[in-house]
């Protein structure tokens, strides 16, 4: 029997605004409405970028803690809420680390190349990664290309990154012209090795072929991340009504493929098992 697939939703990202789509959540109230709808559509995890009063992406500890506390109070039984440390060209590793230490999220996404931009950062990054594992904070390591995946394997092999308590996000199309992903972008990553070594992974894809890319990922055993951070277009080439529509498309596809979709409870069981690996 194939394992269930987890649908992660990325409803807002760091850069898009309501000028891009009126239903893109930028406030706590917006996020509350959005997460209710995506949970009903089949998402088990929400990748949340916190915005300040001006609508800007922020790693402010107090504001992130406020959003996290509110969303967990509203949705803890329906969704796993994931904070992000993504720098977006604005933050340094020390500020990213401080965010996690000051908020205690259940799970967090980290761009490996941002926390370990070169060898001089490796010791500090390694201490942080092991601290997260000890505190049982589930980590999603964001990998943008094959070089990032090679760095991940190297760090696991060198024991500068713990083997347990995390999974990977393979990002498709971030640095392509017009950030337009295609399913063949998955071929850049060593999916066979990930499968053989039992490493949990998901993918996200930029642009109008998001759905096709995620379909390919699910067929290869991956989880998926969908939402307005990466794409606004539905299967018929029109602006999706909201994030829930994009989630619902993937839920329907998984059913047609005969795949089970993980609930938040299923995901938390997988997370717990990951720390025992």
From TrEMBL:
Keywords: Metal-binding, Transferase, Zinc. InterPro entries: Aldolase_TIM, BKACE. Its cofactor is Zn(2+). PANTHER family: 3-KETO-5-AMINOHEXANOATE CLEAVAGE ENZYME, 3-KETO-5-AMINOHEXANOATE CLEAVAGE ENZYME-RELATED. GO terms for molecular function: 3-keto-5-aminohexanoate cleavage activity; metal ion binding. This is Uncharacterized conserved protein, DUF849 family.
């Amino acid at each position: 029997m194939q394992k269930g697939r987890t649908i992660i939703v990325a409803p807002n990202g760091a850069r898009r605004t309501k000028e891009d789509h009126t239903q893109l959540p930028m406030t706590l109230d917006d996020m509350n409405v959005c997460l209710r709808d995506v949970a009903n559509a089949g998402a088990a995890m929400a990748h949340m970028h916190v915005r300040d009063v001006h609508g800007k992406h922020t790693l402010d500890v107090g504001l992130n803690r406020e959003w996290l506390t509110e969303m967990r109070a509203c949705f803890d039984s329906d969704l796993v809420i994931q904070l992000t440390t993504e720098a977006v060209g604005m933050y340094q590793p020390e500020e990213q680390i401080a965010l996690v230490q000051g908020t205690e999220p259940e799970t967090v996404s980290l761009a490996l190349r941002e926390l370990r931009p070169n060898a001089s950062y490796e010791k500090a990054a390694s201490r942080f990664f092991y601290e997260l594992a000890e505190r049982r904070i589930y980590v999603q390591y964001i990998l943008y290309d094959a070089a990032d995946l090679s760095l991940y394997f190297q760090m696991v092999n060198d024991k500068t990154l713990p083997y347990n308590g995390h999974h990977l996000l393979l990002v498709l199309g971030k640095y392509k012209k017009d950030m337009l992903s295609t399913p063949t972008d998955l071929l850049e990553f060593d999916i066979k090795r990930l499968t053989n070594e039992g490493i949990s992974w998901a993918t996200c894809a930029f642009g109008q072929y998001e759905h096709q890319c995620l379909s390919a990922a699910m067929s290869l055993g991956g989880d998926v991340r969908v939402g307005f951070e990466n794409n606004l277009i539905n299967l018929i080439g029109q602006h999706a009504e909201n994030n829930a529509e994009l989630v619902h498309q993937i839920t329907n596809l998984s059913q047609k493929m005969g795949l089970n979709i993980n609930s938040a409870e299923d995901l938390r069981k997988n997370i717990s098992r990951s720390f025992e690996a």
